[in-house]
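EI: anyone free to look at a 475-residue chain?
SC: sure, send it
EI:
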Amino acid sequence: MDELRIPVEVIGFFTPEEARVYGLLPFEKREEKLDCYGEKGRNYEAVVQEIEIIRGVKVGIEYLPPEEFRRLIRQYYREGVADSGKRTQTAVSAGEERDFLSRLIEEAYRTYASDIHFEAYEERCRVRFRIDGRLLERYGIDKENYAALVNQVKILANLDISEKRLPQDGRIFFHRGDCKFDVRVSCLPAIHGEKIVLRLLTRHAELLELGNLGFSGRQLNDYREAVSKPHGLVLISGPTGSGKSTTLYATLRLLNREDNNILTIEDPVEYTLEGVNQVQLKEEIGLTFGSALRTFLRQDPDIIMLGEIRDTETARMAVRSSLTGHLIFSTIHTNSAWGCVARLADMGLHPYLISDTLLLCMAQRLVRVLCPHCKRETEEQFPLNIPWKGEGKPARFYRAEGCEACYYTGYSGRKAIYEVIPIDSRLSAAVRNQEADISALLKERGIQTLRETAIGLLREGLTSPEEILPLLNES
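SC: here you go
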């Protein structure tokens, strides 16, 4: 067959999963007709009927030899294989397992994946990558070889291969070429076989520099000024997976000087930093955030990083430590930057103590960025009625299309957005007076909210309306 060039918009008619399930490769779309390549010898009657009913198009099929068809599917759907109706991707044999695992971790590193999921089901096993916060299926594994692959992971992580009834946690140090990083391993017993999750604790240096995280110029200056203070409390809020740990580690790198004694208590220790004394939380033996903090104060610290303030004892000790001349960093689960104040108050801290110690509160989120290779400007209206609150509705939007470069997701990478509130004398008074609505004060100071920052990305054409919709709804 001559070199085939299928338009991206035609390939995008099916997701990779749909292409694998249907066993079809679309190559031309004309009004209400979709022409597809299919695998010779396979019965498509039920598939065609389903597509015509659900998608409203007539389906034509041009049959190809199985090997040629599978080659094209791999080419256009990133290693996907439609194999006689089975929902699998490129299968891995037992002889390839060891090299496969190394190549898999290396590939995950190159694509900036944060996690690798190994999952077993009744009829198939699969491997998924979490890229830009979303799980994408990458490979299939022969059912009979899955247990051996799990055992290989366990051996590398120094886990008990005979224990299949209880969860286990371990760690792998990965070193291949220039790639050197830790991999956290979690094993969970499931009904069809153990589920394994590998968390890649990669040290992409560019992601641990404050200037590269997404702060605006004003926000970066406010944050740097707060963390340069000799004592006080700096709080970062946001849901799980919003990049709080990355911000904390970038901050520690900035402050990691020979004249600073830095101590951290973390759950877990995700990155090891030379010159920083890091402690792993172990609640089962009594090593909690609170108990570690009490010991830290006898270790002559200058800077303390608490992985999270999650209870009253830790909150009170953090505030007291900041009052006695220490700089404290921590995270807290709230929906907004100012919500940090209410959360501390809910934990029983007096407002005057919070106002005397809080240097800065900050909220952050991660927003997926549209793939520059395939994003498309559209004149369509915003799909939902969102109150724009005077910001002015953007005149145009860009949509996610999907191409080979972005695994047909339409997005490539994520950008952190921030709401940074440095506490000045007027805001300190607002803390003491327990003022819930400080929107007027923020506007006076020109402080951007998460909502305003997200809309800014939309105006610049960097993201889509759907991606920022949760932020618009929660504001």
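EI: DSSP finds 16 helices and 18 strands in the chain.
SC: 👍
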